C-alpha cells in the first residue's frame, strides 16, 4: 500500500491544505521509509530527523494560523552532499571534507527551507560529483532500489535512490555532464537539468563551474515544474545567474504536444545503445507522434566531439576549483608536514580518491604550458560548435529526443576499472551541459531485465516550458506505474 | 598513440602527492583518456571563437553597500589550526 512518502509533492500539498494530512505525518512517513530501507540502499550520508520534525511542526503551525503556503511546504526533501547547508556537515562524498560544516546555506536550499520543505538529510554521491555510478563516494556506494546489486547511476546517486524509494519526495542533485539525468533514468524517476544559470549555484561546492547545474529529482513531471519554480530565478550571489525573476513552470503543462516538431537524434539507435533502450526510445517516439507531434531526424554534427571536449573542459575546471582544498582553512589536514608545500601535497594525496586525482592530473596537464592550445583551447572552440549545432537544430524542431543513457543500470564494480567506459555513460547527456540548454529524463518503460529506461528531451535555451510540457504529455499517456523491487518487498 | 605524460611534473604543479603505484596507473589511464580527448583536434576550428560560458553574462555588478557578513569565528570555525584569528601553517620561508 502506498504511504504518504510515495505520493507526489503536488498531491501532498493538496491533502495538506484540505486538512486531510499534516506535515508531521508526512515527515514520519519518510523517516520510517529511511529506517526500513536505507541500511541496504545507503542513499544518505547523514539523516536529519530532528530538523525534519522541527520544520514539519513549523509548517503545521503556519497552516493552523491560516497562512497561504507555497507548494514546497511539507514536502520531504533530500539534498546531495555537495550543496552547503548551514550547520550541517557537507562532505562532497570526500575524505578531504569529512568534517566540513558550512557557515551558510546554498541558495537553492535557502529558498526551499523558506518555502517549508522538510530536509530529511544529505545524500551520498560520487566524490565531488565526479562519476556516473556513485561508486566514487569515499563512504561507500549507494545502491539501486530496482536491484541492489546495481548502481543507481551518478554522480547524484543518493538523491536519485532516495526519491525512487520514497525516502524523500523531492531531491536536489547537480548535473555537470549528466549527473542528475542519468541516475534519474537508471532509477526510473524524473530528472530535470534547467538552463545554465536558471538556478543559482551559490553554495554549491564547485566541480566545473561553467558546466555545473543544480538540478531536480521528482517522481512526476508536475513535481519537477513545482520544484524548479521554487528554486529558480535570479540570485545576486551568483554572477552567472540568469537575470529573470522566479517563474511558475506548472503553467502550460497541460498544453500537449499537438503541432510540436520533435527531432530524433539518429545516434539513439546506434550500436553503442543497448537493444532494450533502443526499443524503448523507438516506442516513445511513436507515442509522441500518436499524440500529435511531427517527427523528423535531426543531427548535431559536432556532438561526437562533445564527449572529448567535455573530458578536457571539466577536468580543467576541476583542477582549478579543487586547488582550494589544501588543508589550511577547513577540512582534512595531513599530519607531520615540514613545510607548507608538503602539507598541501600530503593533505591532497590523503584526502582525494582515485577519480578526483585522475581529473586533477588530467586538468592540470591540459592547462599546462605547451598543451593549453591543443587541448583546452581547442575544446572551448568545439564547445562553440556544439552550441551552434543546437541553435540550428532548434530552428527546425521544438524538442530533441534521445536516450538519457545508452544502457540501463549496470552492476556494481562492472566499470570501475575502465574509466573511459564509465565516462561513456554520459555520451547523450554531456552535449546539453556544454550548451547550457534544458533537458529532462522521464521514465519510458522497463527493459527485459525489469530495469527502467530513461527518455531524454532537450529544449532550446530557456525553453523549460516546452521541455516540461512535452515530458508531461508523454508521462500522462504512458502512465508508468512500475515500482522498484525494493518497495514491493516491503508490503 | 597513447599520450606520454611527465606525471611527476604535473603532480607537482597540482600539489598532489602520489604513490608510485598511483603514478603508474594514472599514467596509463590518462594516456588512454587523452587519446579520446585529443579527438577535438580533428575538428577544423581556426576561425571559431572559444566559449567559456554557454549562457554568457559579463560585467555583472551590484551596489557596493556594506552589509552584515559571516562572523569571524564562524568563518574560522573549520580551521585545522588557528592562532589570533589567523590560519596557522608550517613555515613557508626557508631557514638559513
The third-level CATH topology of chain A is Amidase signature (AS) enzymes
Structural class of chain A: alpha/beta
In the CATH scheme, what's the topology name of the domain at 7-42 in chain B? Histone, subunit A
Provide the domain count of chain A: 1
Low-confidence stretches of chain B: none
Helix content of chain B: 25-40%
Order of helices and strands of chain A: HHEHEHEHEHEEHEHEHHHHEHHEEHH
Largest interface: A-B, 74 and 51 residues
Fraction of residues in β-strands of chain B? under 5%
Main beta-sheet annotation of chain B: 2 strands, antiparallel
Strand content of chain A: 5-15%
Measured between the Cα atoms of the first and last residue of chain B, the distance is 48 Å
Radius of gyration of chain B: 23 Å
Task: Give the full name of the CATH homologous superfamily of chain A.
Answer: Amidase signature (AS) domain
* Morphology of chain A: globular
Q: Please give the CATH class of chain A.
A: Alpha Beta
Give a structural overview.
The complex is a heterodimer of chains A (491) and B (96). Chain A is of the alpha/beta class and 491 residues long. Chain A has a single domain (4-262, 396-488), classed as Amidase signature (AS) enzymes (Alpha-Beta Complex), CATH 3.90.1300.10. Chain A has helices spanning 9-17, 23-41, 49-64, 107-115, 157-164, 181-187, 221-231, 275-290, 303-321, 340-351, 354-367, 373-396, 419-423, 430-435, 464-478, 485-488, and strands at 44-47, 76-80, 118-123, 170-175, 190-193, 213-218, 261-264, 294-297, 399-403, 439-446, 452-458. Chain A has an eleven-stranded mixed beta sheet with strand order 1-3-2-4-6-5-10-11-9-7-8, with helices on both faces. In chain A, helix 9 crosses helix 11 (354-367). The longest helix of chain A has 24 residues, at 373-396. Chain A is globular and about 65 Å long. In chain A, 64% of the residues are buried. Chain B has a domain at 7-42: Orthogonal Bundle (Histone, subunit A), CATH 1.10.20. Chain B is mainly alpha-helical and 96 residues long. In chain B, 31% of the residues lie in helices and 4% in strands. The radius of gyration of chain B is 23 Å and the shape is flat. Chain B has helices spanning 7-13, 20-37, 72-76, and strands at 82-83, 86-87. Chain B has a two-stranded antiparallel ribbon with strand order 1-2. Classes of the chains: A alpha/beta (491), B mainly alpha (96). The interface between A and B is large, with 74 and 51 residues.
